[in-house]
Structure formats: structure tokens, C-alpha cells
Amino acid sequence: MSFIPYQSNPQFLLPPRVGDFIPQDDLCWVTAEVVDMLDLSGIKDKYSDYGTDGYHPGMLLKLVLYGMATGHRSSRKLARLAAFDVRGIMLCGGLRPAWRTINRFITDNYDEVRDLFCQVLKICKELGLVGFGHLAIDGTKVKAAASKNKNNTIDRLEKALVKLKEEIARALTEIRANDEQENDDELPQELKDKAERKKKIEQAIIELKARQQEESGSKAELRYNETDPDSRLMRTSRNGYQQCYNHQVAVDTETNVITAYGTSQDASDIAQMQPTLKASEANTGQKHKVASADTGYFSGENLDYLKKEEIDGHVCPEREAGAYHKSKFVYNEECDLYACPAGRELSYVETKKKQAGKDVRIYSGDCSGCPHQKACVKSKNGNRQVERDQYDHLREEMREKLKTDRGKAVYGRRKETVEPVIGQLKMCQDFTQHYRKGLKAAGAEFGLICLAHNLKRIWHKFKDCQGARAALNVLVALGCSS
Fold first, then answer.
1. Are 436 and 445 in contact (CB under 8 A)?
2. By CB neighbour count within 10 A (0-12 exposed, 13-18 middle, 19+ buried), where does 270 fall?
3. DSSP alpha helices (H): ranges in 255-414?
4. Which of 136, 167, 201, 209 yields a CA-CA distance of 20 to 30 A from 478?
5. Is the pTM of this model over 0.70?
6. Rounded Cα distance, 148 and 370, in Å
7. DSSP H helical segments within 298-389, as ranges?
């Protein structure tokens, strides 16, 4: 049997270039080419004219974005990528930045991420990767760099503070008894640690009480997480309650390019639809004709916004509505009354003011003798009541819209676009947990992930037909450079 001859650590007659070992259609070529076209003045202006020369921000950005696109998210993994991977070596020109340098570069430029995202999105737009037809919106909860076991309520914090004050008082008494000085510089380290812990607990109590006033309408007990105070306890679909941030993405269904992203501390998606649509329009300079979202965004305010903005909205109504849910009651506008599933009428009774001064009309009917009374009625008087507000006609229109063949087809596009995109962010780019703490840092981290995803969309446009390196000539010809 014969084998192809080989030699470990071969010597070449002429030294090859590092790029000769990288396939022509690899993602790293488009990463390098696109970053070279970006305006990095906002980052460069932060560097001082004094001291030794630093690494070029373009080189570090290429490394970070390529790493984010291929699942190398931590600073240490990025440092290893630059040192041992031929693609990382090519992007860094053979330089080996330390993981601390990479981490500091990311931390110092949180504010620049959104501008960089918009610049890459502009290139996508010039390449025809944003169609402005159908925009799909969805949210996903990503675990924070925090433990849910580090959550504390106000009561627990106040009890811990009392106990800590007693321990500090006893320690100071012992020091005085031993005739030691009370100078802070000479206090035992253990006592200094307790004093620092006391300050943190006092600050946590202040923040929790401020949140309590802001969220006075919420029934959930507020908690403070010691590891990442900005994160919130949220219910996830697979792992129950976890310490998370809620991220939003808007995806163009024609090419799966992300046109907008957002990060919030709110576990609900319902208040995120309008900001996401506005961000998409601001980022691209144009409004999409159609928008779709799942039942987490189904609210009268959102439907009203879509109608006023003349966007053909497809928002899924309540999917798990019970047999006696309000949606099963039919409203007769002419007679101003409701008909229940059993055929009984509910007529107008009174108007009440709810939150934010919203008027709600109350309808009620006689349910005596109805075989469904026990399952349907929750009120003490035994009669079913139904509320109607100014947006209910929009909800009814949306329910009917999504029953049509066209409505089902348009809404069904979400499963082919935004949901797979979120899956790619989590699985292919390893975005299953945050590495950075704080709302600002988490938002920037997600922004880099979305930016890297759009780079991959540019790469996919060229890699099959003419090789990724040929993208540079096309981009320059189109004048995409900032």
C-alpha cells in the first residue's frame, strides 16, 4: 500500500503568506475587508498621543468580530485564536494581543457598538440584503453572568444589615477593650470587609426601594442580585426561572439580516415592539411594509401603533385561550352587546377608569341556570362580566386576519426567519450566556453578536458564487465605504 508523502514542519523554497493556507471562501476574508471599510474614528479618538504605541483598533475589531461569529466569545479564547489559529494569525498580522488587552478594548467601546452595527447594516443595505418587505420580531432571554441563588428581597437585606451592624459593633468593642487605635488603616482586614459589605447592602436596599416605587403596579416581589444587580429573574422556556436579560431582534425575512436589536430588564416582550420597529426604521432609513410578531406582543397599544404607522401587522393572538376566554365572546357593534359561547347576551352596564386613565366599558348578563356557569363565571354574584376598551376592535380584526390563508402564510414566515436566526445566535455563535455584567455591557455584548451575524450574511452572499475575497471589489464598486 502506498501513501502520499508528507513531512512535518516542511521548509519552503519561498516563504508563503499566511493567507495561502486559508480557503478563498472563508469568513475571515470578508471580516477583514468589511472592517477596513468602517469609520473607526470614534474608537481612535479615545487613544492618547502619549505613551507607547497601542494595537490598531481595526486589528482588534477584526479579531473580536470573527471570534463572535465563530463562537470564540471570551477574551481568553480570542487571545488563543490570535496566537494559534491560522485565521486569527492572518487577521492580527502575526501579533498576539493578551486577553486583558482584548477585554479592555471591548469594555472601553461599549458605546461604539451600535454605530458599528449601523455601518455594517448600511453595507448590507447597499448590497441589497435589506428588502423592506416583511420584518419579523422576536425576543429571547439569555442567562446573565449571575446566579439566581444570589437574589435577596428587602426583608432579607434588612435582616442581614442588622446582623452585620451587630458584628461590626462587637468587633469595635473588642478593639477598644484591647486599647487598639480605631484608625481605619489599622483595622483588621476582616472588619474592613464587613464595612464594605455593609455599604453594598445599604446601596442595595436604596435601589430596591427606588424600584419598588417605579414598579408599584407589579405584584412580583422585587429582588436584588448581588452578582449582577441589573439582571432580572425571568422564566425561560427550558430551564425555568433564571437570572437573565431579555433581548429583541428585528429580522428582514428576505435575507435574514438583523435590522435592529435591543436589550431590556423587562421579562415581557409586550412593551418592546414599538421601540424595536422604531430602531429598525432609524437604522435603515426606511419602514418595512409588513411586520409580524408572536403572541407575546399582542396588545391593543401595539396594534394601534401598527395601524397608525400603516404597517401591515400580523401579531398572533392568544393561542391558549380557554373555552370561556373573552375572545370566544362575539361583540355586536350595532346592538352594543356581547354574545357568550352559550348564546346568552351580555349588555352594557357601566364605564370604569383603569390604569393610565383608560376607559373600560363593562358588560354583564344573567347566567342563572347556565350549564357552563361554574366553569365560566368567577364573580361572586354568579354573572359573567366582560370588559371592552378602545382597542378591542383591533384585537378582533387581528384574530380574523390570522384565520385567513394569507394571514397564516405571512405569519408562518417567522418560523423560517427570526426564530432560526435566534437559534443561530445561540448555538452557532455560542450566545447561551452572558460573560459581562450590567445592562450596558449585556446590550453591547448582544450588539456584537448581531453585528457578527450580519457579517456572516454578507459572507453567504459571496462565498458560493465567486469566493469571499471577491466581495471587496464589489463593495468598493458600490461605494459602501464610510
1. yes
2. middle
3. 273-284, 300-308, 373-376, 392-401, 405-412
4. 136
5. yes
6. 47
7. 300-308, 373-376
